[in-house]
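Sanity check

After download, print the first record. It should look like this:
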Amino acid sequence: MVGKLGAMARDGTATRTKILDAAQELVLDQGFAGTSVDDVIAAAETTKGGFFHHFPSKQELARALVERYVAEDMELLDDLFTRAERLSRDPLQQLLLFVGLQEEAADELTGDDPGCLYASFCYERDLFDEGTRAAIADAVLSWRTRTRAKLDEVVELYPPRIPVDLDALADEGLTLFEGAYVLSRALGEPQLLKGQLRHFRNYLELLFSPAPA
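Expected structure tokens:
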């Protein structure tokens, strides 16, 4: 009996994952408004009963897509900072390594990359409930909070060479990443994102490096 229940649970999880995978691909390709429940059911090769068992409505599907995407994004954020902090004890070097590791991650993106779910949902934000919009906002704020905390450590040891708004600087990394990602896709130049991140890392190094004697 336990074995059968375990198999059923695994099957249910697999079906849910197939639905989410299919829905995410469709939404990134044709938008949320342009993606019907029937489209998702067909792409996931499931039934209406299977779909509505996991997602009582299209809004519930949207919330689940965002929650999964946010969880993966927060895992990436934590991994990048953890790796940077493992490689150096100096907060400025940690910050520079953090951006450098984003450059490495950018290497994995290609012209066939499906896109950013945050951006797709923000373009159609009026279609989603407050909980879904809040989940995206909380994820973006997490990048700001984590980066600002590291900047606070940096300025204790390395005062900036010119006045700087640390909150705005904390946002700049994510702003640059998202903007350069769109630009690289529009121009078909995958290396553009990596180049912009390198410029940002150079700026941080110049901003916080001690002035020549």
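If your output differs, re-run the checksum step. Summary of this record's structure: The chain has nine helices and no strands.
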